[in-house]
Amino acid sequence: MTRLSPQAIRLMIPVLSLAVLLAAVFWLQPRAMSYMGMNLLFNLAVPIALATIAQMLVIAVNDLDLSIGTFVSFSACVTAVYLPTAPLVAVAILLGAICVYALIGILIHLRDLPSIVVTLGMSFVWGGLAVLILPSPGGQAAGWLRALMTASTPFVPLAIIASVVIAVVAHLLVMRSTLGVAIRGIGGNARSVARAGWSVMKIKAAAYALSAFFSVLAGMALVGVTTSADANIALRYTLLSIAGVILGGGEFVGGRVSPVGAVIGALTLTLAGSFLSFLRISPDWQIGAQGAVLIIVLGLRLLLARREA
Amino acid sequence: MNALKPFLSKPWLWSWLAALATFIVTILFTGGASAFGLSQATLTFAAFSVLVGLGQMLVITLGPGNIDLSVPATITLSGTLALKFMDTQDTLILPGLAIAIGIGLCIGLANYGLIKLLRIPPIIATLSMSFLVQSMAIWSNRGLRIKPPEALAAFATGTTLGIPNIALVGLVVSLAVWWLLERSIYGRWISAIGQKLAAARMAGIPVDGTRCLTYILCAILAAFCGYLLASFSGGAALNMGAEYLLMSIAVVVIGGSAVAGGNSNVPGIWGASLFMFLVVSMLNTYGFGAGIRLILTGLIIIAVIVAASRPAGAR
Lengths: 309, 315
Description:
The complex is a heterodimer of chains A (309) and B (315). Chain A is mainly alpha-helical and 309 residues long. In chain A, 75% of the residues lie in helices and 0% in strands. Chain A has helices at residues 6-28, 35-42, 45-60, 68-82, 87-110, 115-133, 143-149, 158-176, 178-195, 200-226, 237-247, 259-279, 286-308. In chain A, helix 3 (45-60) packs parallel to helix 8. Chain B is 71% helix and 1% strand. With 315 residues, chain B is mostly helical. The interface between A and B is large, with 48 and 52 residues.
């Protein structure tokens, strides 16, 4: 038997669990094994995958973002209200929000603040802004955005293509680019990054800004799929994104993250949610299924890691 | 170093000052008219945050990465099941309490079981558990709203000598936790574990038992809070625990406990809980809309944490 690197094992488990879950769904409902079926299954996974990448970037610098859910909701509200009628205003607001994220990264670094609390505070701020922009559910998706998210691509459904693109882009960005290495370096050992002549503050600001950029994309994708928004549309994303990162083999400390794994983790969690409806079990247990899948997959990881050791 | 100003160096001072300032600003607006009513409401709602905050504080004391995200689900499940069991009968109040505490015990054990046996990071372990518990609550609740027994509801909403009963309960529990943390060997143990796990293990501290007990205590406090909250608000609701996730973490940190663990204090939990409720009522009094209220709440939380912080490298 060939020896696998720990990273390969790390990635193997999320891939296997997604495959098993997908096989189970197909076995229960063969009709899901079609272009249409796959699209339906994974449609909502695209925004979740983007939010998971956003969370991953923050986790890579040893921080945690508890405001992702409200920030994606905020982006979705801006997208649904301003993008169709006043695209420039929408772009300006979203760019401003990305700058705010960078500033938060700087603030956390300069004052040595716990990221959990600062982002907790920010979650109230984004939530409040979302309510101000869109007091009651509504808005609409811009024509091109709707067209993009519902495009019928040949052979492979858009949701799958989009997930692959997100994974590849995030992989190049985080694992291959200089900035990505610096970001993960801060998570590993901030002091040695600083000694090597980098500005930890600038890198942290960049990590937060990039994270915000992916959250904004998540909000826009969400509006493209659902065609409307409300201030609470993505609150679940905070916890789902954290779970997705860990499910995909990431760790909270040490800058050990895997972008491809994170996307797969997000897909697995999405699928876990809809899996039960195929079993005809009451939707009451839908959230519970996500919890159970988390536990099982992480348990499997332990089992395999032990065997390897 | 701090001998000259022992009082100013107390980590919980900031939260109390912030709470006091907020109270004064609110009273100024009403011209002192609602001072009594505001104090009563504040004490009651702060007490709920104190209960969950104390548990979360013990868990956070255990050191980096330790946090209990299952608090809201535990609140909901224990409130739901306890009220369902008591079925409005006064005779079942104490057994109902036992049920609530039993639920807390089970969830705490399960949380630590996942952390220990599957070696899952606590955030993810308690998160997965909260998904399961939340599903259980949804399944058992079925949208029915069962009223609490009358005597219990009367107790939960009543006052003794002008002080809300809930606040008194919160005070008693706080004193117990203060004793645990500051005077008992258990408190020394969790602080030691939070400061350096490996050193604590070397020193012969039963690390696993202590951590397990801490997660159980946290879940029991959350379950107890759910029991009281459901009785206070006339029935359990599926979203009753939702706001306490962020609240329980916020009061610990604003109260001056170290986020990295190893150094906690009980008075700060009270200061921060009073402050968190007062901020909301202050913004309400000034007639702000929901959006502005949320934004200001967030900015005030950040301002407090920045004010209480020191620049990086100053330590």
